[in-house]
Write a structure and sequence with these properties.
By secondary structure, the chain is α+β, with helices and mostly antiparallel strands. It has two domains: 248 residues, no CATH class; 164 residues, no CATH class. 52% of the residues lie in helices and 13% in strands. It contains 15 helices and eleven strands. The strands form two sheets. The chain has a seven-stranded mixed beta sheet, with helices on one face. Strands 5-6-11-8 form a four-stranded antiparallel beta sheet, covered by helices on one side. A hairpin with a 5-residue loop joins strand 5 and strand 6. Helix 2 crosses helix 4, helix 5 crosses helix 14 and helix 13 crosses helix 15. Keywords: Membrane, Transmembrane, Transmembrane helix.
Amino acid sequence: MTRALHFVVCALVVCSALGVVAPGSAAPPPRPLCDACGDSFEETAAAHGVTVTVERSTATVSVARNGTATWVVRNRLAGGAGTERLRENDTLRAEIGERAMWDTELVAANVSSAGVLTLRYREPDFAEASVGGTLRSGEFTDAYGYWNLHGLGADRLVVVAPERTEVGWTVAGATVSDDGRRMILTDFEDRGFVTFVPEDTALGPLLSLLSVGALVAPRIGSNLVAVVLFPTALFGLFVGSVGTFVSRSDGLGARVGETVGTVLAAVGVLLTAGALLAGGGLSLLGGAAAPLFGVGATAVVFGALLRRPAVRARATYWRLVAAGAVGVALAAGATLVGALAFDRNGLTYSLLSSFPLLVAVFALLPAGYAFGRGNRRLAVATAAVGFALSTLPFGSLLSPTTGFGPFVAVFVAVYAGVVAAVGAPLLVVGASLAGSSGDARASPDDDRPTPAAE
């Protein structure tokens, strides 16, 4: 039993660590929206051996009807040797300018006598045509632009709408000019789509919604399959197999029977002790396995309650659904208390991001009851809904699916198997309660009329 518990703990740690660490390690380096502006330009120039100081930076992005954008970046440079080198050396200025801006084509670069460096760029795919003559731009999002945007870069950035259009959707915090043709940003914290709709149209908000919806709807469908449906199907298969075995095992429910409370409490003690002892406290990889402590503590409480025959006799499917919801809250609370009391790292991201699996674990309590009552379809559906709810926070449904290879399939399968293993005792407890509850004395078919009654 100790080896099995240790394996479950390690599997939970690996799954949580991969889910948290892998996306971050694959991200490109952060860059501002205008990386030819301000501090970012200074860093690029320094990499070419030129030291300059940007006192103020502005950018104007003029969008054409075909979605091509022309960037005009103006960096006001402090006087110095670096500024003189850029003014006099056309080749060096062009090399730095071309390197400074990501995914654009440098058109021109010059330095005025007043020390203003003007860079002109061309970006062919800044926006794309969509429904009703609308243009949409994903440049202001991480998912459909540059993956790791960090700040604005410029002190002020202005986006000019194409001819015969006006700004529709804007980024949060942006202001729009009185004529509706310009979107002005002085800060860039929240991401979002920007749309340009035909001028003087009353359907601008609807066209913007349809334009963005046409882009993200297919992504939502593919991400639902990869993030939710596929792992949920695996989990349903695991739970269906275990539940069928439990419900068809002669005498298993009877053997658990009146000792169900004691058995559940003992399992809870093992889980709690395992979370505390395996690897040295709750600090396993920053708290990734800490929910085992909460599950164990809640199992001890439930076990103490189920030792009372009156509690077992009143068990029904919907009461166990409510008990499962209470169990999630208790386990989350116990995990937080345990993390603050025993974990020197405190409330970490890996700890908080592991809470959703509690929903899948405690959904197995009413699922087990349904198995015990012979309703296999309801049992699998209950487990599947709980697991699907637990997977939703792990991925953005709006982001493009980057790939679903063998490694991801193995990871998802292991995660589904680990959650099923942790919740298996609750599945058995639920099945045993189906045999000891008050409504179990009557068969599910007893409500049907007999031939004599007919």
